[in-house]
Amino acid sequence: MEPDVGATPKVSKSDEEWRQQLSPTEYAVLREAATERPWTGEYVDTKTQGVYECRACGAELFRSETKFESHCGWPSFYDPRDTDAVILREDRSLGMVRVEVLCATCHSHLGHVFEGEGYDTPTDQRYCINSIALRHVPKA
Question: What does the record give as cofactor (predicted)?
Answer without folding.
Answer: Zn(2+)
